[in-house]
Design goal:
This protein is an alpha/beta fold. It contains three helices and three strands; from the N terminus they run βαβαβα. The protein has one domain (12-84): Response regulator (Rossmann fold).
Length: 98
């Protein structure tokens, strides 16, 4: 969170379990700050409740360790493409009533 600035990062890849703040808490805090940055979770926890919480919170994906590099790379590319389209749409002027 110390490095977070809106628009500075395109995607967050985080573990669910971390010292201090969990990845789920981190995602919640980012959403409270208005961030729509895609979040990809990686976890060793196979609990369906963890995945459901992450996805309900707006996670782009939730992967279980060990993670296949190709799958992660593909998800990262897709998440960044979606984020890029969203940023471009946000910058467009709203339609006029002319």
């Amino acid at each position: 969170m110390a490095e977070f600035e809106p628009g500075r990062f395109d995607c967050l890849i985080t573990d669910v379990s971390m010292p201090g703040r969990s990845g789920l808490e981190l995602q919640e805090r980012l959403r409270e700050l208005g961030s729509s940055m895609p979040v990809i979770f990686i976890t060793a926890d196979t609990s369906p409740a963890i995945e459901a919480r992450a996805l309900r919170g707006g996670a782009y994906a939730c992967l279980t360790k060990p993670v296949n590099d190709e799958v992660l790379f593909h998800l990262l590319q897709n998440a960044m493409n979606c984020a890029g389209r969203s940023r471009r749409n946000d910058r467009r002027d709203p339609p006029s009533d002319d």
